Amino acid sequence: MDSIRVGIVGATGFAGAELARLIAQHPVFEAVALTAGAEAGTEIGKLYPALEHAYPKTTLVPHDDESLLSCDVVFTAVPHTAGMQHAQRLAEAGVSVVDLSADFRFSDKDRYESIYKTTHTAPELLEHAVYGQPETMRAELVRLAEEHAQGDAVVVGCAGCYVTASILAAAPAMHAGLAQEASPVIIDAISGVTGAGRKATAKTHFCSADESVEAYGLPHHRHAPEIAQAYARLHPRLDDGGLVHVIFTPHLAPLRRGLLSTVYIPLAKQTTTRDLHALYEKHYADEALVSVLPEGVWPKTASVEGTARAHVNVSVNEEEQVAVCMCAIDNLGKGASAQAVQCANIVCGLPENTGLELLACIP
Predict the structure, then answer these.
(1) Structural domain boundaries in the chain
(2) Which positions are annotated as active-site residues?
(3) Keywords in UniProt for this one (predicted)?
């Protein structure tokens, strides 16, 4: 098979560098353009020596470099508002975009603007973009693959790390209609500091983050509406525009990478742990990158570090009839860059796990 030319906008951030690592091992994708802002002109191997062997003497180019326009697909690993700017230019040139920012996660322009407090400057792309969470949006991504094969530029707005783990933890229960519609779903999620980006802040500085765990973003974190939107799509009685009420609390932990989401779902009917676990096994039986662990084996971040995989398990508090649903992912892997590659694989007509069958280090 001929190689597929890809570019990475924002290759010096943690997600961008992780994309470069994954694409270097991909059997079909060829990275032909790696961009940076202030660090343009620097060799990527000097910033990330781990990438030197894969990208010898490869110089980072500016974000507006013309080489991006010759790509088949470009990954935009940039903050929100920047994603839409790059996507507009690339789509106009006929290049498909897989965006890792939040700019294409909501199909409704007003909804996006109310949550992110900024104007969306590419509403025509937003209208046709597909949410990049393959396990729950596969049919829509396959439709984009048909458009991409016809030469049309398409846009994927990848789900974020907290949202991905929270979706995968709850999806089988939601899809089966087990959630009480009137009761809120409560989510406690813990992430490593790389989820906050490469630039250190007072919160993520070593002296603040080391040996400390803290909650943040309360009372209304902006990922909560995205999770609620995904749950409503899954719930058979709410996919006509209803709403799942979500209480979401993120926590920062002294980890480099890794994310664990625990989702508490009040159940609409009597269920046991054994029955719910069997439901989860059946739901994810054909998924290439989601593993349902055996009963009593709980997801942990170390088991998925550096991989594209999600580890899921579930328990039922049978006295209270609350499902406790857990998912561990690598926040830079399945929570960002690996999921972006998974989406790009689908868009390009490849098996979605191409280049992503990675194992975590042991121990």
Answers:
(1) 4-158+335-347, 162-333
(2) 161
(3) Amino-acid biosynthesis, Arginine biosynthesis, Cytoplasm, NADP, Oxidoreductase
Give exposure, 85-116, as e/b (b: 16+ Cβ within 10 Å).
bbbbbbbeeebbbbbbbbbbbbeeeeebeebb
- SS in 3 state form for 165-224? HHHHHHHHHHHCCCECCCCCEEEEEEECHHHHCCCCCCCCCHHHHCCCCEECCCCCCCHH
Give the per-residue pLDDT at 238: 63
Distance CA 90, CA 279 (A): 42
Same fold flag, 4-158+335-347 and 162-333: no
Q: pTM of the full predicted structure? A: 0.96
Q: Report the CATH fold assignment for 4-158+335-347.
A: Rossmann fold (3.40.50)
* Geometric angle at alpha carbon 229, from 109 and 288, rounded to 5°: 115
The architecture of the domain spanning 162-333 is 2-Layer Sandwich (3.30)
Cα dihedral sign for 335, 336, 337, 341?
A: positive
Q: What is the mean pLDDT of residues 76-93?
A: 96
Query: How do residues 242-301 score in pLDDT, each as one tens digit?
Result: 678 999 999 999 999 999 999 999 999 999 999 999 999 999 999 999 999 999 999 999
